[in-house]
Design a protein that fits this description.
By secondary structure, the chain is of the alpha/beta class. The protein is built from 9 helices and 8 strands.
Length: about 260
């Protein structure tokens, strides 16, 4: 069981990214089920996830899953159409295969060598790719207590796809400040010789080179830094996401031991 710290609006950056990048998959599904795995001591993140998903997929349903029975009982009064709470863990106790599993601040208490097995187990529960669909999505990551800094890995049924760094730009001194929020699979790899360390070093250099753009605001400086970063790193998103204080990179470029 985690500490269960659950501040309202804590996961807004992750939720907005999910709605923007996975909304089409949710809209196409007959029964788009999303799981908020390990929602914590209060149900706010599950409630908020439902509201944000329904802006892009009106039929979306959310099931909050918690390993602590008392937390499930406390959340039950918040159930309504499209929102339910279940006792469970990595087995994901829902009928069928969900199109989304969000696991925020869950794996931080585990050892690094346990992550791959957990990812594999959760990915096996996702809706499979079929008929032009890429299948379900697992989003696993870590953020600070009020959601200013967040890093997550997106995985499909086939495994990890991308890593996204997201921040409130007004609070950022340098991109490497996000290192403290790397997910468990990467946080111990932020050392010289590892790809994620090299990426954050290059991002800091691009940020420093983009300092003249700071006069137009932190957003313009971030956009310029990401544009420069693309010369050496497989950035997979567009300026529309960069404007939100995000950048997404292919997992293969940051995976441990790939450089």
């Amino acid at each position: 069981m985690t500490r269960g710290t659950t501040n309202p609006n804590r996961l807004r950056r992750m939720d907005r990214w999910i709605a923007a990048t996975h909304g089409a998959e949710l809209r196409r599904a007959q029964d788009p089920v999303a799981v908020d795995l390990g929602y914590g001591a209060a149900p706010w993140t599950a409630v908020e996830l439902l509201g944000r998903l329904r802006t892009v997929a009106p039929r979306a349903r959310v099931v909050g899953v918690e390993i602590e029975p008392e937390r499930v009982a406390a959340a039950r009064p918040y159930e309504r159409d499209g929102l339910a709470f279940r006792h469970g863990g990595f087995e994901v106790p829902v009928t069928g295969r969900p199109l989304l599993v969000r696991a925020a601040n869950v794996l931080r208490q585990y050892d690094e060598d346990e992550v791959a097995a957990v990812w594999q187990r959760l990915c096996a529960r996702l809706a499979p790719a079929a008929g032009g669909s890429r299948g379900g999505l697992l989003v696993e990551g870590t953020c600070d207590e009020i959601g200013r800094r967040h890093v997550w890995v997106a995985l499909g049924p086939e495994g990890p796809r991308t890593v996204t760094f997201a921040t409130r730009l007004g609070s950022l001194e340098r991109p490497s400040d996000l290192a403290e929020r790397l997910p468990k699979a990467l946080i111990h790899r932020n050392v010289p010789g590892e790809p994620v360390h090299t990426f954050l070093r290059d991002f800091d250099r691009a940020w420093a080179a983009a300092a003249p753009y700071a006069s137009y605001g932190a957003r313009q400086r971030w956009i310029r830094a990401v544009r420069d970063l693309r010369a050496d790193w497989p950035v997979t998103d567009s300026p529309a996401r960069w404007r939100q204080g995000e950048v997404t990179v292919a997992w293969g470029a940051l995976a441990p031991g790939t450089r």
